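User: Before I run my own analysis I want an independent prediction to cross-check against. Here's the chain; please return only the structure tokens and, at the end, one sentence I can use as a sanity check.
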Amino acid sequence: MEAIGQLASGVAHDFNNLLTTVVGNLDRIALHRQATPDVRRFAETALRAAQRGTSLTAQLLAFARQRPLHPTAVRIDRLFDAVLPLLRDAVGETIDVSCEADPDVSAIRIDPGQFEAALLNLALNARDAMPRGGTLRITARNAIVAAGEAQRREISAGEYVVMDIKDTGSGMPADIAHRAFQPFFTTKEEGKGSGLGLAMVYGFARQSGGTAEVESRVGSGTTIKLYFPCSDETALCERLPPPLHPVTPRKPSILVVEDQDEIRCLLAEALEQCGHEVKTSCTAQEAIALLEQGAARIDVLVTDFMLPGGMTGLDLARKARALMPDLKVLTISGNATQEVIRASCLERGAFLAKPFRPSDLTRAVAELL
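Assistant: Structure tokens:
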């Protein structure tokens, strides 16, 4: 797990830096006022391919438990209501899908988006195991995991919500079921599966404080069990309204610090198109020198987390705050591990994971302002 995590982090950082440039420029092509319909269609096709590359990296990071999550306390019945139509569309009319939670089932603290992705992965696997149709039953119940059982499952003892995702498919022999959660292991034909779907589900469950198990017999279908710790928090029932963006009396000034030339130019141009005054730097030391000159006030510092010269973006943010206490900071990174995000969570700060579209950048800056 540790070796895979290190590999995934290194791949993600370099790959996401490349994808930031690719996605950003494709987005600009698709939105350019002089682009013909054919050019827009070509750009949008390439964008979808780039986003699939992002998804593959994210799945590997999820297995290695290094993908950032945004957990919140949620009610299971609300999750099921939201995801059921998606699952039915994904598996087709020949498979009967149902979701049912016990009336007294507890709230859990998870990332709703990643939970939806995990269930979708499981539903697609179930569909492939039932080519002639069948049933997919998803249930949720409370359970107490005692100390001995918890040790065997490598989780903490206590109260859990257990979800059973059961299909009536062909099932798997024991040797295949034993390897089901291994990354890149797949029984599908070449080109029809990356072998990361179940690995992502397992990584998501472990990162959420629980675990995943598989029970399967040839001819008797497969059941995937997901364990999530119960939460004492009040479940979030309604979405919060989006924050308002106050109008500033002057053009906000942004300092962009990024060592990759293509990305730095892309970020600067996107911000300038929104009316911001933008200064750029490729190192933390150069940025500090610029701030010390005091020639112009900077409202927002946009900095990559990994910078050359021995200083991280976080080191830069701290030194910059010493010079300008009211400075707002947006940290960006292609290696969006939990450690990087926690380190980047400064007061009056935000984090944006690469790759992102120019509109994501300008929205993040607007929310800081």
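Sanity check: Confidence is low (pLDDT under 50) at residues 190-194, 235-249.
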